[in-house]
Specification:
Blueprint (H helix, E strand, L loop, with lengths): L7 E5 L9 H17 L3 E7 L3 H8 L5 E6 L8 H15 L3 E5 L2 H13 L4 E5 L1 E4 L6 E7 L4 E5 L7 E5 L15 E4 L32 E5 L9 H11 L2 E4 L1 H5 L20 E5 L5 H4 L7 E6 L12 E4 L2 H16 L38 E5 L9 H17 L3 E4 L11 H8 L8 E5 L5 H13 L4 E4 L26 H11 L4 E6 L5 H14 L3 E6 L5 H9 L5 E6 L8 H4 L11 H11 L4 E5 L7 H9 L1
Parallel strand pairs: 1-2, 1-4, 2-3, 3-10, 4-9, 5-9, 11-12, 11-13, 13-14, 14-15, 16-17, 16-23, 17-18, 18-19, 19-20, 20-21, 21-22, 22-23
Antiparallel strand pairs: 6-7, 7-8
The protein binds flavin-adenine dinucleotide (FAD).
Length: 627
């Protein structure tokens, strides 16, 4: 390995007016700690044109040195020029580690720089530290849809690089600068520029939402009930001089633009005050608000998980609570109550969609208590041992078919690109038994790919589908509503997918996914929409025994075949986020005991075995079936 200094660099991005973007200054805070632990200097790197203000700010926030590249060629951010400048500087000064803000520009420049330097990059971190044993940076970032926090190290290559989300760290107070300012001249040559900036358009549709530097955020979730429901949220935000945030559920419903989304796939925020209105507090949302100083939550459900992260908990209807808060705040501030943009009432329920003809029930539904669905995960496209994975898939599949089980084959969950069921069936020349294969189908396929897959499934005698609203990555293609003949619908959900397939491919028998841990009324309304669209059976999320929501499904839909998912991994704690409460890692768990309890409580239902161990657990299921 080449020789590197012990210095830690923070790239301080600049605004158009030459000031520093908040995240760069925020990163000088953990940067100081890491640099001290590394035993080197904390160096801020500022690139741009007329950037004295940013240089001054960096110098006043603990940097030992500020390396400045100030040149008209850097007036506009261009990935080519900025990446080249950073690479040149890093090659010259050899820092041990580099922190970059995970802003749109930071996310664009950081991978290019790391790639050219042939080193690793951990993107989108929420914490950084130094490993006391080996001195490497420990980069912490959410993974598996926010359900786990991964700690990553880069032991072999230098510099160690990572992007860190804005709002995760707080700026320290400014102090007198003792920083050494080093000016570097790196003029931009025309050969460096492959992209020409013709015009800078600052805002699209007038929507500028600076959640990351907001000191006060009032956010609305699905509990606001519709676009109008954001009226009182906006009113309170205005009275407080704050910014409006939203949960993904509200954004996905088309009630407010994505620019307002807070959370794992939205913005990470660190305001002094965060007021969550009608937000349940799922991990993917709360991951984005961990840096808030004070959290106030307003929710009708006293058991809403948001209350476990809130400093002040208001159990109540946001439509009653918010107007009172707004009025009181205006009284204290001596200002008039801002006008309510809308009626403030919940939106009327969407017009009932036409009902679809129900399909014939699947074969297994006639005898569901003897039906086992066994989850199968198709090989990942990037697998290094693909031939082996395919062989093992084939072995399991054929054994399941021989013993009369249903293979429930998952789709690309969490943007983890895996082969589609039909591709594997074709490639391995598999022979699905009647109603013995069920394909999970997400909403993030290309339309042509979807049609191809459906046709191929029918050709191979597969007619069972479980339609799921795709929640992979924002970067993945998502079927557009108009592609599924659902014009006017803000986003494509499993409902539109079910309706489309029932209309064009009536041979399929489609299942609805049901989550007994979602807010009850909301989940039941969704189930009704899925059934009206043509869903003919239900598969739940894992249940651990008797469950009130399942009881209600059975009461309300006595003829509906139900498959209850049972968690067969001993790692019960992985279910914490699904269940909405923390399960300690060392909790003992006997999957077969749970399976027995679920079967005793619901003898009329089938079972979906999630993460069943093929070598150890599957033989027991085979044996049980044989008796
Ligand atoms: C990969 C992935 C990434 C994700 N990224 C994000 C993300 O970045 N941000 C995000 O927010 N989510 C994200 N999610 C989704 C997340 O899991 C939740 O589905 C989402 O946060 C739920 O939004 P919500 O709390 O508004 O809705 P719900 O969970 O439906 O909660 C609504 C709440 O409103 C309450 N309520 C109802 N009526 C009222 C009323 N009148 N007054 C007061 N309270 C009321 C209910 O009790 C309930 O608690 C992600 C999911 C995945 C899988």
């Amino acid at each position: 390995m080449e020789t590197y200094t012990k210095d830690l660099w923070v790239y301080v991005e600049t605004n158009e007016d030459g000031t520093a973007r908040n995240v760069g200054i925020e990163l000088l805070n953990p940067g100081r700690l890491l640099a001290d632990k590394q035993g080197g200097k904390l160096v801020a790197v500022v690139i741009g044109h007329n950037i004295d203000a940013a240089v001054k700010e960096a110098a006043e926030h603990d940097a030992d040195q500020v390396i400045v590249v100030d040149d008209p060629g850097y007036k506009n951010f261009l990935t080519d020029t900025y990446a080249k400048a950073l690479v040149t500087l890093i090659e010259k000064y050899k820092p041990l580690s580099v922190l970059i803000g995970a802003t749109p520009n930071g996310r664009e420049v950081a991978p290019r720089v790391s790639c050219r330097l042939q080193t690793g990059l951990t993107a989108d971190c929420t914490a950084v530290d130094i490993d006391d044993e080996n001195g490497n940076v420990i980069w912490t970032r959410p993974t598996f849809g926010g359900n786990l926090m991964a700690q990553i190290q880069c032991p072999d290559n230098r510099p160690q690089m990572g992007t860190v989300r804005p709002g995760v760290f707080k700026k320290t107070a400014a102090s007198d600068s003792h920083a050494e300012i080093i000016k570097e001249s790196l003029p931009v040559s025309n050969d460096d520029i492959r992209v020409k900036v013709l015009e800078v358009i600052k805002e699209i549709g007038g929507e500028k939402v600076d959640l990351e530097s907001a000191e006060i955020i009032v956010a609305g979730g699905r509990g606001v009930g519709g676009p109008d429901g954001f009226g009182p949220v906006k009113q309170l935000a205005e009275a407080l001089g704050g910014v409006v945030g939203a949960s993904r559920a509200a954004v996905d419903s088309g009630w407010i633009p994505h620019a307002h989304q807070v959370g794992q796939t939205g913005k990470t925020v660190g305001p002094k005050l965060y007021i969550a209105c009608g937000i349940s507090g799922q991990i993917q949302h709360t991951a984005g608000i961990a840096g808030s100083e004070v959290v106030v939550a307003i929710n009708t459900d006293p058991n809403a998980p948001i209350f476990s992260v809130a400093d002040y908990c208001v159990v109540g209807d946001l439509f009653e609570v918010l107007p009172v808060m707004t009025e009181e705040i205006c009284k204290i501030k001596g200002i008039p109550v801002p006008p309510l943009e809308t009626s403030g009432k919940k939106a009327a329920a969407p017009a009932e969609a036409p009902k679809s003809e129900p399909s014939a029930p699947p074969v297994w539904a006639k005898d569901p208590n003897h039906s086992y669905h066994i989850e199968m995960i198709p090989p990942k496209q990037a697998s290094k041992k693909l031939a082996e994975d395919l062989e093992s898939f084939k072995e399991k599949f054929e054994r399941f078919m021989d013993h009369g089980f249903t293979a429930s084959i998952t789709d690309n969950a969490m943007a983890n690109l895996a082969f589609q069921t039909t591709e594997v069936v074709e490639a391995l020349n598999l022979k699905p038994g009647p109603d013995q294969v069920l394909i999970h189908l997400n909403t993030f396929h290309e339309k042509a790919e979807l049609d191809h897959m459906l046709k191929s499934a029918l050709e191979h005698g597969i007619r069972n589908l479980l339609c799921i609203t795709g929640d992979g990555s924002d970067k993945m293609h998502k079927l557009l509503p108009e592609e599924l003949e659902a014009e006017g619908c803000p986003v494509t959900t499993s409902v539109e997918l079910i309706r489309y397939i029932r209309k064009h491919y009536p041979e399929f028998i489609i299942g609805a996914a049901f989550n007994p841990y979602e807010p009850e009324e909301h989940e039941f309304a969704k189930l009704k929409r899925k059934i009206d669209a043509g869903a003919a059976y239900v598969i739940t999320q894992p249940i651990l025994g008797k469950n009130d929501m399942v009881d209600r499904v059975i009461r309300e839909y006595p003829d509906l075949p139900i498959i209850l998912e049972v968690w067969m991994s001993k790692k019960l704690f992985l279910l914490s986020d699904v269940l909405g409460y923390e399960i300690p890692e060392d909790t003992p768990y006997d999957p077969f005991e749970t399976l027995k309890e679920v079967q005793e409580a619901y003898p009329q239902c089938g079972n979906y075995l999630a993460l069943l161990g093929y070598k150890t657990q599957y033989p027991k299921i085979e044996e049980e079936r044989a008796h």
